[in-house]
Amino acid sequence: QVQLVESGGGLVQTGGSLRLSCAASGRTFFGYAMAWFRQAPGKEREFVAAITWSGGSTYYADSLKGRFSISRDNAKSTVYLQMNSLEPEDTAVYYCAADYITTAQAMRIIRAYTYWGQGTQVTVSS
To answer: CB-based burial of residue 66 (10 Å sphere; 0-12 exposed, 13-18 middle, 19+ buried)?
Structure first.
């Protein structure tokens, strides 16, 4: 089992920034890709960003590219999501996910991930 714990959410004004963290613990997650998804009220959960084990490849939802940046520190078993120029439409619960996934296409798919965090709320006020 891998346990994932997100932190860093909160209330921010439009145009502000937040940095989310997701700390992994439990069994080794060597080789695991990690990703961020989000779910706004009344909407389905959607892909935000993903990163390979090495950190050499990153993937983003097209609508978020340029504002969000995913990174990881394997020594700390932590993945980050830097969010800039936040908009009210970014308000959602943000979830961290992890699994052994090797294809770029699969990294964007919710059902490809076994391990999920409990989520952290991000609220952007207008």
So the answer is: exposed
